[in-house]
Amino acid sequence: MSAYDSLLARLNEISHVGKAAAILDWDHQCYMPEGAAEARAGMLATLGKLSHEMFVSDETRKLLESAEGEGHAPGSDGGLTLRAVRRDFDKSVKLPTKLVSDLARETALGHGVWAKARAEKDFSQFAPALERILELTRQAGECYGYDKQSGEIYDALLDNYEAGAKTSEVVTVFEGIRPGLIELLNKIKAAPQVDFSCLERNFDEAAQLKFAEKVAARLGFDFTHGRQDRAVHPFCTSFTRHDVRITTRTEKNWLPGALMGTIHETGHGLYEQGFDPKDDDTPLSDAVSLGVHESQSRLWENIVGRSRPFWHVFYPQLQAAFPGTLTDTSEEGFWRAINRVEPSFIRVEADEVTYGLHIMLRFEIEREMLNGTLAVKDIPDAWNAKMESYLGITPPDDALGCLQDVHWSAGLIGYFPTYLIGTALSSQLYEQALKDSPNIAQDLVKGEFSSLLSWLREKVHHPGRRYLPQELITRICGEPARSEPYIRYLNTKFTEVYGL
Amino acid sequence: MSAYDSLLARLNEISHVGKAAAILDWDHQCYMPEGAAEARAGMLATLGKLSHEMFVSDETRKLLESAEGEGHAPGSDGGLTLRAVRRDFDKSVKLPTKLVSDLARETALGHGVWAKARAEKDFSQFAPALERILELTRQAGECYGYDKQSGEIYDALLDNYEAGAKTSEVVTVFEGIRPGLIELLNKIKAAPQVDFSCLERNFDEAAQLKFAEKVAARLGFDFTHGRQDRAVHPFCTSFTRHDVRITTRTEKNWLPGALMGTIHETGHGLYEQGFDPKDDDTPLSDAVSLGVHESQSRLWENIVGRSRPFWHVFYPQLQAAFPGTLTDTSEEGFWRAINRVEPSFIRVEADEVTYGLHIMLRFEIEREMLNGTLAVKDIPDAWNAKMESYLGITPPDDALGCLQDVHWSAGLIGYFPTYLIGTALSSQLYEQALKDSPNIAQDLVKGEFSSLLSWLREKVHHPGRRYLPQELITRICGEPARSEPYIRYLNTKFTEVYGL
Questions:
Q1: Is the pLDDT of residue B96 over 90?
Q2: Tens-place pLDDT, residues A370-426
Q3: Which residues of A touch B243 (CB under 8 A)?
Q4: Which residue, of A272, A275, B210, B287, has the greatest Cβ tally within 10 A?
Q5: Do B20 and A16 touch (CB under 8 A)?
Q6: Mean predicted confidence (pLDDT) in B455-471
C-alpha cells in the first residue's frame, strides 16, 4: 500500500467521524427532543475534538509527508488531492484541540439558546452565548493568522468558507454590485407593484411538502440517496453523495416558503449528490467552497425556479395540487407574484433584488463585530439602522431582525458573504452554460432539466474539491468571477416582471 | 484530578463515540435513504473501531489500574464502577480491533440485506450475510473464551447480554417454565376461544400513534427527553437518559401492533430515562442487563397494559379516539380480546402464553447454529419443524418464520434468551412491588402509575449498572430469579380470561 493510499484510508476514517457529527447535527435540528441539548453538545464536542486530533496527529502528518514524497504530478488527481489536504492540514494544526472542542460545544448549545431567543424575540437572551462564540472565533482567527498590516482578522475566517478569498476583494465586489441593485430597486419602486395575494391563501401544508418534493425529484434530486425533513431553519447537509438531507419549513399562508425553499435546498443537494463516483471516499468528493455551493442553490431556485418557462410547465400541476385555491390566478400573474420585489425583513424570504443588500448588511456587521468595533449588545441597533438605511424599513423586533439567521449560533462567522458571491456566480455560470449548450434553454421550456444538470455535473459537480474556487470558475468560464452577468440578469428579468 | 476522575472523563468520551454510533443506527432504521446503506456501514465500522481502540488503549488501562490503586471501597459507587469497568475492559481487550470493525460493518450491511430478504420472503438472500456474521460472532466467542470442557461457545456471547449467566442455567430455567406453559396452553385450547374481531377493524394509523403516545406519556415517558418514530422492527435506543428514542409500526387492521408495542417500548424507555441523575456521565448510568431491561417492557406491556384495571381507565378514551369503531365492544370484551391466546407465527405479536415457546425455539436454534450443529441453509427447516412441534403451526413463508426478527442481522446472537428471562422476571418484580407497596394495586385501578414507577425507579432504575443482574434481583427480592411467579401470574390471569 502506498503512503498515498494509506493517507486516503486514514482521511476516510477521519471523515467518518466528521460525518457522524453531521448526522448528530441533522438530528439535533430535525428530531432531537429539547431536553437533550446539553448531552448532545457534549457528544459533538468529543467528536469535534477527536476528528481534529486524528487529523493533526503525527500519524497523518507523516503519511501526508510520505505521500507528498511519492511524486504525484501537480495537476493529477493525486497532486490535487495532496494540495487540498496540505491546505487543510496547515490550517488545522494551528488550532489547539481544546479550542476545537470548546467551539463544538458552545455552538451545539448555542443553537437552542438562539432558537429560544428568536421565539421570544429577545436578543439579550442570545447575547452571552454569542459573546462566547465570538471570543472563541476570534481566538481561532488569531490561530489561523492574517495579514497584521491590514489588521483584517475577518480574512482568517472567510478563508474557511471561500478558500483564497480576501475581505478587501469582497468589499470591492459588493461595492461593484450595490449601485446596480439600488438603481434597479428605485426603478421598481416607481413602477406599479405586482399583486401577490395568490401566495397568501390557505395552502395545505402536507400538500405543500408533497408538491415541493415532486418538483425536487423532477429537477433530479435522488430520493433513494437523500430525503427531506422539516427544520426551524432550512439547510442541506450531506453524509456522502449517497445520503444527502435537505430540510424545509411550511407555513399555511405563505406558499413560497416551502416551495422555493425546497428548490433552493435541492440545488445544494444536487451538488452534493453530484460528485464524481470515482472520487468516493476521497477528499475530492466535497464542495469547493460555499460560494460555489450557493451558486447551485440560487441557480435552481431563481434562474430556473422563478422563470417563466418553469411555471409554464409546473403551474397547472400546482393548481391541481391545491384544488380551487389558484383557479382565479393566471400563470402570468403567478409568475409575477413569485418575483415580486419589496423590501422585507427576512433574508431567506427576500426577493432577488433586495437579497444582496441583506447580505451586505450582515457582512458589514459581522466584520465589525469580529474586529471589536461593534459590541455584541449594540448589534440590534446597528442592524436596524442599516435596514433603515439600505431597505427603508425597520424590523419591529429582533426575530425579524438580527436573530433571524442560525449562522452565528453555529459559529458560522465569515460565511454570509458567500451567499452573494454565489448568487452573482449563478448568473455567470448560467450564461456560460447557455454558451456551451444552447439547447439548455429550449429544454427548460419543455420541462426537461437533464441537459442543464448534465452541464453542471460535468463542469461544477464532478471536479469536486480539485481546484480553488477561482481556479474552478476560470476553468469553466475562461475568466474569474465577475458581477456583470448578475446585474445583467436582474435587469433583464425585472424589466420584464415590472414592465420597466 | 484523581485517576478515577480522569478515567471517568475518558470513559465519557468513549461513550460519546458509542452513542454517536447509536444515533447513526437509529437514523439508519428510521430515516436513512436506502441508497446510503454501504456508506453508513463504513461509518459505523469506523466508530466501532475507534471506540474499541480508545477503550482498550494503554491510556485507559493505565487510568483503570491507577484508579483501582486509589482504594475505592468495594461496595462504594467508586468500587462498583471500577468493578463494572474492569469486567468490560477484560472482555474487550480480548477482541482484536479488526474483528470489532468487521462486525460493525457486516451488521450494518446485514440490516438492509435482511430487510430485503424479509420483504421478499426469501431466506436464501440473507443466508450469505448471516454466514459472515455468524463466522465473525464465532471468532468473537473464541476470543472471549469459554469453558472448553462444556464446549459451550454460546456462554461467551450470552454473557454480553446477561452478565454472568450460563447457557446451562438458561436451559434449566426454560425446562422449568415449559411444562407450565404447555399445560396452560392445552387448557386454553380446550376452552371456547375469545372473540378478537374488534382488534381487526379499520383504525386510522395516525390516530393509533397519537393514542399510543398519549398512553406512553400517562405511564411516565417524558417526551421532552425522548420521542417516538416509525421503524420496520420496533426498538428502543438511548443516547443518555436525556434522549431516549422508542419506535413502533402501525397496521390499519391490527390495533395491538402499535398500541401494545408502544407500551412495551415505553417500558424500556422508562428504564433508560430513569437512571439516577447523580450517575450522569458515568458507566453506572446504564442498564444492568437485557433481561432486566425486558422485565421493564414486559411489566408495563403485559402486567399493567393488558390488565383489567388498565382498560377500565383507558377503554373509554380508546373508544373516543376511534369514533364509531368500538361502540359495540364492551370493556370486558376488549380486555379478553387483547389477551387472546392462540399459537401464531410472529414473536412480537405472540400472546403471553405462547411467547415463551417462541423464545425457546430461537434459543435452541441459535445455540446449534453457533456451535455448528445446524447449518445456516437448514435454519428455515429447523425453524418450521420446531414451530410445528411447539405450537402446532407451520409458517407459510420465511417472513413469517426465521426472517421475522432483526437480531441476527444485527449480530445479536445470544440475545434471545433474555426476552424470556426478563418476561419471567417481570412477574417476580411485580409480586415484590406489591409486597413492598400494597397501594400500587389500588393506584393502578385509579389510573395512577406513579407509585409503581417510583418503586421501579428506586429498586431497578436508579441502581443502574451497579450490580450484576442476579445481585440486583437478590437485593430487590431477597432471593435470586425464580420462574414460579411467572407461571403463577399466567395461571391466575388466563384462568380468568378463559374462565378455566
A1: yes
A2: 999 999 999 999 999 999 999 999 999 999 999 999 999 999 999 999 999 999 999
A3: 32-33, 35-36, 39-40
A4: A272
A5: no
A6: 98
Short-list B264, B163, B71, CA closest to B472: B163
Residues of B in Cβ contact (< 8 Å) with A40:
239, 243
Distances (CA, A) of B494 to A217, B303, B393: 54, 12, 22
Q: Is the ipTM of this complex over 0.90?
A: yes
CA distance A322 to chain B (A): 22
Residue A322 near residue A463, CB atoms below 8 Å = no
For B139-178, what is each residue's pLDDT tens digit? 999 999 999 999 999 999 999 999 999 999 999 999 999 9
Tell the residue number behind the cell numbers 419549513, with chain if given. A249
Distance CA B420, CA B429 (A): 14
Specify whether the CB–CB gap between A170 and A417 falls below 8 A: yes
Q: What pLDDT shows up at residue A232?
A: 83
pTM (2 d.p.): 0.95
Would you state the cell numbers that stand for residue A200, as one nine-digit string?
A: 397568501
Cβ distance A77 to A21 under 8 Å?
Answer: no
CB burial readout A376-390, b (16+ within 10 A) else e: beebbebbbebbeeb
Which of B31, B46, B224 is facing A17, going by the closest CB pair?
A: B46
Contact A412/A110 with Cβ under 8 angstroms? no
Let me know if B497 is exposed, middle or buried by CB neighbors in 10 A (0-12, 13-18, 19+): buried
Lateral strand order in the sheet of A244-248? A226-230, A244-248, A236-238
* Cα A171 from chain centroid (whole Å): 19
CB contact under 8 A, A39 and B224: no
Interatomic CA distance for residues B268 and B293, integer angstroms: 6
What is the tens place of the pLDDT at every residue in A98-134?
A: 999 999 999 989 988 999 999 999 999 999 999 999 9
Q: How far is B481 from chain A (nearest CA, A)?
A: 35
Report the share of chain A in percent with pLDDT over 90.
98
Size of interface A-B (CB pairs under 8 A): 105
Q: Would you give the DSSP letter of residue A412?
A: -
pLDDT given for residue B55 in this prediction: 98
- Helix, strand, or coil (residue A353): coil
Catalytic residues of A: 265
Return mean pLDDT, chain A: 97
CB contact under 8 A, A243 and B12: no
**pLDDT for B6 beyond 90:** yes
pLDDT tens column, B171-210: 999 999 999 999 999 999 999 999 999 999 999 999 999 9
Single-letter amino acid code for the residue at A393? I
Find the helix packing angle between A3-30 and B37-56, rounded to 10°: 100
The catalytic site residues of B sit at 265
A230 φ, ψ (degrees, to nearest 5): -90, 145
Query: Which residue has cell 475534538?
Result: A49
Task: Provide the β-strand partners of residue A238.
Answer: A244
- Give the Å distances, CA to CA, from A122 to A125, A345, A370, A396, A400: 6, 16, 21, 12, 11
The DSSP symbol for B377 reads G
> Under an 8 A CB cutoff, do A20 and B47 touch?
yes
Chain B: nearest CA to A109, how far in angstroms? 15
